[in-house]
Sequence to fold (397 residues):
Amino acid sequence: MQTEVAIIGAGPAGTTLGLMLHQAGIDCVVIERQSSDYVLGRIRAGVLEWTTVEILDSLGVGERMRAEGHVHSGVSIGWRGREILSIELQALSGRPMMAYGQTEVQTDLYRRADEVGLTIVFEATDVELHGLTGDVATDSPAVTFTADGGQQRIDCAAIAGCDGYHGVSRITIPDEVKTEYEKAYPFGWLGILSETPPLPQLMYVNNERGFALCSERNPMLSRYYVQCPLTDSVDDWSDDRFWTELLTRVPASAAETIVTGPSIEKSIAPLRSYVVEPMQWGNLYLAGDAAHIVPPTGAKGLNLAVADVRYLADAFIARAEGDQTKLARYSTTALSRVWNAVRFSWWLTMLLHRFPDQSPFDQRAQEQDLYYLASSRAAQESMAEQYVGLPLYPDLT
Ligand code: FAS
Ligand code: PHB
Fold:
């Protein structure tokens, strides 16, 4: 088989890239290790930047999101035990955000892929990348894999590595070419789903017992998180223990309105920041979690994946029109937005969590950071514009 771009991974990054290239008439094939049901079974992100909303709209994927998603003009921060700080995203930045789960986004992406005839090969095993030398002029990229009981090979002009942190693409780039930046956080997020009505607005909580987050998936499906030690397991947390802890951490005025109920999903996710540079090597281009990981605090993971592939698709489109410069600069362009989101997610994580080794100085500085955010419109504008997503192509004139 021959194609222009072989895309490894059919998560949000790979599927969105496939739809963008298909829309632009650029031949591509998506190769996914798991079944579509397995991918759709993952419980992950919950918040879409407005930039992501507009990109999904442009791909014909926005109808159900617009009908079932919840547009929020602000988020809240619970702090100092009982106080609630409202960050008016729309008023401060001019744009809102959309609460719409990644599972729903992925469902809509797969439905659109079927509608337009995008080729996604599911349950492809033993995926290997070939013909990559790091030189776009001499590369002869190819992907081999086993699917439908037989070995298959796709020769292509470029490979997009959208296969997540544990994929095969990033590790194909030689260690001497890569610079990796990493920070592990000394706690995890215990998350549950419950078939209960959510709070009217997302609420992040800084509490002396630890971080908490009140989010949603739809009017009768809530998503809640509490910070927990990395040594904890889901078995350590009965529903009763979870709800008692959450209602203790959330300001009382909000806790009174939280509707509890049995959990239908419970999991613990570790928090980590990671970036690899560069995000390209010859005709291999990395996008999404294959290139970077952010703590979910800033709700950036999914949104960064979509922004990466917008840049990459624009670069492939430019190359098809004879302009190689965007593709040559893809990594530089993407990393600028990546590092802003990585820094923002790190900042919000440091602001809202309790660190086991936190010194009295650290604690006092964190309290002052919260007080400054509460008392400064400029600080709130800065948080708001980063939370809803900076422009893809900032006007620097
Ligand atoms: P993905 O990991 O989603 O997709 C990669 C795809 O590649 C997968 O389908 C995988 O099966 C496939 N693949 C891997 N290796 C392969 C191979 N060798 N061959 C073929 N295919 C291969 N983000 C938020 O914004 N908010 C959150 O609350 C949040 N919670 C998260 C919780 C968890 C447990 C995790 C792991 C992530 C969470 N994220 C969250 C981040 C998450 O949403 C990612 O940012 C998002 O899925 C990134 O999308 P992709 O880059 O497409 O990577
Ligand atoms: C979620 O709903 O899962 C969610 C929302 C906001 C975040 C992280 C996760 O910052």
In short: The longest helix spans residues 330-352. The chain has a mean pLDDT of 96. Residues 45-47, 202, 215, 223, 296-299 surround P-hydroxybenzoic acid (ligand 2) (CB under 6 Å).
